[in-house]
Every structure is written in structure tokens, then in C-alpha cells.
Amino acid sequence: MIFHQIATGGCLSYLIGCAESCVAALIDPEARQIDRYQGLAGREGLRIRYVIDTHTHADHFSGARHIGQALGVPVVMHRRSSVRFVDMRLDDGDILLLGTMRVRAIHTPGHTQDSMCLLVEDRLFTGDTLLIGGTGRTDLPTGDPDALYDSLFTTLRNLDPSLKVFPSHDYKGQGSSTLEQEFALNPRLQKRGRAEFTAMMRELDLSAPMHMTEALRTNMSGGKTVAQMLSDASAKIPFMSLAELKDRVARGESDLLVLDVRERDAYEQGHVPGAKHLPRGQLELRVNSELPDPTQRILTVCEFGKISALAAATLRELGFMRAVALDGGMQAWRDSNFPIERS
What we know:
Blueprint: E1 2-8, E2 11-18, E3 23-27, H1 34-44, E4 47-52, H2 64-71, E5 75-78, E6 88-90, E7 95-98, E8 101-107, E9 116-120, E10 123-127, E11 130-131, E12 134-135, H3 145-155, E13 164-167, E14 177-178, H4 179-185, H5 194-202, H6 212-221, H7 226-235, E15 239-240, H8 242-251, E16 256-260, H9 264-269, E17 276-277, H10 283-290, E18 297-301, H11 307-317, E19 324-326, H12 330-335
Parallel strand pairs: 3-4, 4-5, 5-6, 10-13, 15-19, 16-17, 16-18, 18-19
Antiparallel strand pairs: 1-2, 2-3, 7-8, 8-9, 9-10, 11-12, 13-14
């Protein structure tokens, strides 16, 4: 087996491949590592055949859909997944052929209803069902402590104890464990009675993951994250530096329209001298009356330099081909002690 474990913070993903047939599967890919996965596969001479998510992630952004579309390969999840863009849904016991390797799906609900582990030779990819020294939480959407108890103490307990455990999260850099080690040492697996275990899981009182709402929304629907929208917009437009704008304002240039796209209160408290006000939320509705000349050079400005990128990209889509965005925002402008005009 060709094997790579890729860490992104505390998240783990895996590239596994058959050296004989040069085909591979990508397990629990993270959106920020897409280029790295493709680079690893290319370096190993592998062609990715399947992209697999072990469950619907709520704590990070899956790269499954993007990679599946880019490579023209199926996105694979369990049958109970509510993710819309899944191409292949597996039942408990289904097997994927990966050259001479066999990838067996084992349904292990509890962390989520669609959680599954993947058994490949001597390795068990446990997703968030079983972690090193812990388990997945059960207090997020579709979580169920009773189901997790059955998955751990009935399903996984009956597998070969020498199986190597590779989870989707590891915050201590341990990398892997074995089923034998986990059932012997994992504190949560010492609560072996159902009532004791489920009570422990219900009383964990964990804080919600960062970006949970956005992660669930994008991972289930395939929609874009805010970061993706900003990145896409920034790739479509040029920018102007703070110093360049300061010099142009000082010279009193009239061929550049500075367009402040913040809300009125923020604009009136202080803006670039001579800036015109048009809130981003009204841009499409008022563009024809407020910006009659599509040949004019327009510089969009916001508070932190993000919404202005979206506004400039929108203007270019609307035909204002000289629209640019300020590299930075009014906060950086003020911090630089550049001139401010107030209404």
C-alpha cells in the first residue's frame, strides 16, 4: 500500500494507493490541501479513483466536491448522508476495489448518522468515530450517544484488535494507534456500560466548533465558503496600494472615483477625502444611476479590505472593466495616519 497521512492543524486526511495498479483513494480531504493531494498523487504516479468522506464534517471544510469535480471521479459517502453532491452511496459492508486493495465500509453511526469507518488491509480509518484517546462528540446534528456506544462496543470491539487506527483528528501528533491500545487505554472506552457511557457523552459540555454553521452548510450543499468567495473575487481584480491612493488624493486627481461601500454610519465617521458613498448591499440596485460612466476607473474601499474586493469583482461583472479594490481598508488607512474626511 502507498500511504500518506496529511495533517492540517488537528485534521488528518489520507491518500492510499495500490502500487501495482497505480490507483488511489483520498479519504477526508481538507479544502486547503487540494494542490498538495494532487502533487502527492502525481509524485507517486497514482490516479485518484475515489474521494471519500467518512462523515459530514462540522468542524472543517471538506475538499471532496472540488476534487471530485476537478478530477472527474466520484465523491463517496455512506447511504445515510444528506450531502447533495455525493455520487456513490455505500451501505454497511460494501467494498470499493482499488487495484488489488479492498476498501470496506463499516457503518458506525453516533458522531453523525452517516459516520463510517474504512477497513483497508491492516488499517482502520475511523473518521470521528474513534480518536486516539477519545471519541467523536455526539452533541452535533444527527449525533446519538446510544448509537456511538453500539458502534464502539459492538461493531469495532469485534474487529481484529491489532488493526491500526487512523482517525480524522489528532491534536497531539500521535498519528495512529491500534484498536487494542484504544480499548485498553482510551479513557472514554473504559466506560463500558451503556448507561455510564451515554451519560458521560451527554455531560461533556463541549464548546461548538469554530465555523460549524458554515462548515455544515458548505459540506452538505457544496456551496462556497466566505473565504472561497473572497479568494475568487480577489483573483478577478487588480488592487491599489494605500500609498498609491494617498498620493493620488494629494494630487487631487479627478480621473479616479473612490467608492466607499461601507454602511452610511461608518462612511460619515470618516472616509477617504472625496470618496463617494454607495453601500455594497445596494450596489447592483443603484449602479446605473450612481455610476453612469462604465469607462471610469473606480476604486472600491471598505473597512478591512474584503468587501471591497467583492464589490470590485461585481463591478467588473457589470461592465466596469477598470474597477479596482484598495489593498487594505479604512482601518489600515487610519492606522497610517492618512487624511480623513468626515460628513
